[in-house]
Amino acid sequence: MTTTERGGGMSRRTMRAAIALTCLALLGLAGCSSGSGQANPSTTSASTRSIPSGPAAELSALAGGNGVYMGEATPPNLQRIGYVQHEFAAAGTATSYKDVGALTSDGRWTFLPDTGAAYRTRVVVREPAKPSAFSGTVVVEWLNVSGGVDADPEWTSLSEEIARAGDAWVGVSAQRIGVEGGPVLVSVAGVPGSQDAGKGLKAIDPARYGMLSHPGDGYSFDIFTQVARAVRAGAGLGGLQPQRLIAAGESQSAFALVTYVNGVQPLTQVFDGFFIHSRGAIGLPLVAPGKYADIAGAISGTPTIFRTDQQTPIMDIQTETDVGSILNSYAARQPDSSHFRLWEVVGTAHADAHLLGSSAKYMNCGVPINNGPMHIVAKAALRALTTWLTAGKAPVTAPRIEVTPGATPQVVRNSDGVAQGGIRTPPTDVPVATLSGAPGPNPSTICLLLGSTKPFSAARLAQLYPSRARYLQLYTADVDKTIKAGFALPQDRAALLAFAEPSQIAG
Fold first, then answer.
1. 7-397: CATH topology
2. Which residue, 69, 375, 416, 455, could crosslink 13 as a Cys pair with Cβ 3.0–4.6 Å?
3. What is the pLDDT of residues 295-306, one digit of tens each?
């Protein structure tokens, strides 16, 4: 039987978002164009393209213990949005990969299967309670382990759009740390749930997860593939029949998907599209059996673009922090094409107040952390990618954030400190504060990628806005401009309007 757990029943086992931050793998490092082609729907439809056969994971229901464990700021109220949740063990024999030749900057890598190892990991499924509401799209998230536990940052950013569309979401414990435990690249003392960081599912809840086994991150790519094959065949979905699979990942998981796109997808063709969120300049390295992927050691490696000789659509969304910080995605920036879109969003941070949720109050970075609307742009990006896959209409092209090249690329800013170029939203174009991907003055590792929000002085606000009414008029017009441009959805108009702060304006 399938274990179904709804809404608030998860709260006992929920980690706070500060531990779940997708940026945390990178936080430890602080110490240490053109083209508007459209993809032909026939090239992106699973029903019409050739997908090589291969082994699929065997799914069996997980039950007992303390229920589903996930690192997220707030347990989702799935019943409220008409969704149910199931959790499974996914088992099989996975292969690792070895590279043939150099991992060149053009991403045209050649991988060959190497060693094999048994695995038994876990998979979480969230799907519409009513089968008739299912869209046919499954978002498969490579769960993030940067804080020492499995976390679902893409669900946190995208869940409203996933539920509106009727998509299913699948979270895969792809990496070893989430299952077996391991090094925590940053610790956040005093945050509820921080005591579980680095333990792994097996130690956190042995009654539920004690039988799991992960052979190492070198096998993660094939584990992800095998789970996707099982899901495509309908496993774990209670009779739902997927029509398309989108691989999604943020931060360390986005690094993993860079490697997947360049080396594994050409072999497996199991995904119909990729949603890449906050990648750095490099990919997750291949490692030996029993090892953890070492991002800290790989960060200075050769920057790589996504290979351009494949037809699977890729939607790459980057925050301001990602472009110019140690992540340096600027070094891997590439032109848009018939199968690639890059959106860089001004005034956003690698992790922000929305991602942290209730845990934001524990952050002491010297100034308030970034409170930009990255998640609103992310939802528009997911809709755009899905439309690309279903209708063949490519997402709109976007301007790049302006950067001064050099050994350490610098984001170009105006006199208020707001970045120039890029995708712009009302809080950056009708500002009452400087929203930035740059951190506040506190040099702690966790603050480096949380960005900042620095309120304008009363004098500066008076220069910009003669009245609250004029401010709201300008702000509302910019909301509609952003929606018309395709960088926010009409359904999120109220949410974008809620970022307005008329109380900051005198009179």
1. Rossmann fold (3.40.50)
2. 69
3. 877 888 899 999
